[in-house]
């Protein structure tokens, strides 16, 4: 599969660079580094940190984690607070980065957090979230969408939390 320069249309060639091999445009004489999106997902804990909130979106079955894309000029930490507020009307009181994973289908670097919210009283933004429910940790394992990135993040977190 050939790739072409987004500036001049010349076919790109692979060329060594001090950081690896990258596509290079011989006409523009510039490397064309890969582009990808950055997004966050968060495991939302209630104030007592004994239950977590999962959502359904896009008319799909199975629950997922609250997530969203990072806006230009915004930190990932700011995105966590903004997305939780926008989608659920909840205020994040604390948040901690857990892990990241590249998600090939959407060419997205997904950054996963665990966050505590001030209250269990959410208000759905109906054009973004179909449903939201609080679950015990055990119930959440069964409710989370199987074979999803959300499931991988949640199960990793619950495994670590059980050791603490």
Automatic annotation (TrEMBL):
User: What lineage is this protein's organism placed in?
Assistant: Bacteria, Bacillati, Bacillota, Bacilli, Lactobacillales
Q: Which UniProt keywords apply?
A: Hydrolase, Magnesium, Metal-binding, NAD
- Nudix hydrolase domain: which residues? 35-157
* Record carries keyword ATP-binding: no
The UniProt entry, under InterPro entries, shows: NAD-cap_RNA_hydrolase_NudC, NudC-like_C, NUDIX_hydrolase-like_dom_sf, NUDIX_hydrolase_CS, NUDIX_hydrolase_dom
Give the family per the record.
Answer: Belongs to the Nudix hydrolase family. NudC subfamily.
Q: Which reaction does it catalyse?
A: a 5'-end NAD(+)-phospho-ribonucleoside in mRNA + H2O = a 5'-end phospho-adenosine-phospho-ribonucleoside in mRNA + beta-nicotinamide D-ribonucleotide + 2 H(+)
Q: Which GO terms describe its molecular function?
A: metal ion binding; NADH pyrophosphatase activity
* Organism of provenance: Vagococcus allomyrinae
Q: Which Gene3D superfamilies match?
A: Nucleoside Triphosphate Pyrophosphohydrolase (3.90.79.10)
What are the required cofactors? Answer: Mg(2+); Zn(2+)
PANTHER family xrefs: NAD-CAPPED RNA HYDROLASE NUDT12, NUDIX HYDROLASE, NUDC SUBFAMILY
For the keyword Hydrolase, the answer is yes
GO cellular component terms listed in the entry, alphabetical order: cytosol
Its recorded name reads: NAD(+) diphosphatase
Its BP terms in the Gene Ontology are: NAD+ catabolic process; NADP+ catabolic process
**What domain of life does the UniProt record list for this protein's source?**
Bacteria
Q: Name one Pfam family in it.
A: NUDIX
EC number(s) in its UniProt entry? 3.6.1.22
């Amino acid at each position: 599969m050939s790739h072409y320069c987004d500036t001049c249309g010349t076919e790109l060639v692979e060329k060594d660079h001090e950081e690896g091999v990258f596509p290079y445009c011989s006409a523009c004489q510039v490397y064309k580094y890969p582009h990808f999106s950055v997004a966050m997902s968060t495991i939302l804990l209630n104030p007592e940190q004994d239950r977590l909130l999962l959502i359904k979106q896009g008319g799909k079955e199975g629950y997922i984690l609250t997530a969203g894309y990072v806006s230009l000029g915004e930190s990932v930490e700011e995105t966590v607070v903004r997305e939780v507020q926008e989608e659920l009307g909840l205020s994040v009181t604390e948040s901690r980065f857990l892990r990241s994973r590249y998600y090939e289908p959407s060419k997205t670097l997904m950054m996963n957090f665990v966050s505590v919210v001030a209250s269990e009283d959410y208000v759905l933004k109906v054009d973004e979230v179909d449903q939201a429910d609080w679950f015990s940790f055990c119930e959440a394992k069964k409710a989370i969408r199987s074979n999803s990135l959300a499931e991988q993040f949640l199960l990793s977190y619950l495994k670590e939390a059980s050791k603490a």
